[in-house]
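Section 3.1: Structural characterization of target chains.
Under the original work plan, the team committed to producing a structural model for every single-chain target entering the pipeline before any wet-lab resources were allocated. The record below documents one such target. The sequence was received from the expression subgroup and is listed exactly as submitted; it comprises 162 residues.
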Amino acid sequence: SDVVQPSHFHDLGNLLFAFVMLWAYVSFSQFLIVWSANLPEEIPWYLRRTTGGWQWIGLSLAALHFFLPFLLLLTRFVKRRIETLSLLAAGIVVMRLVDLFWLVAPAHHRDGFHLDWMDLAAPIAIGGLWVAMFVRQLKGRPLLPLHDPRLAEAFGHARGHG
């Protein structure tokens, strides 16, 4: 807690902001290319995702995976507080999982929106295994790069902008 300053969280918030914008850019570009090409083999992909209840997931992705994080990350308040930045990052990860579900599930459930218990259990199980392995590996390692010659500069960055 003595090393990490609000300016570090501000930098992480800027990085998160860039990734939110990148996701929106790539998603919209893909949609625009398919829409402008108007190819019969590409159109059913979007038709399945804009009917049968799937359209609400698409709208929630636009709202909660782009617009809300974009607006919140414009403020210094969110980017400089670990609690709000962590909550926002967790929400973006959840919406990323929803995005992956929206990309895959309509191809398997052509009659409309369907959520199975495995759609929730699989990401939780895989994520739990990943977190367990991460924490296990982290226990044996220092949290700071102790022999990095730029470590003092990072401390100076925190003091200069904090």
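The two ends are 14 Å apart (CA to CA).
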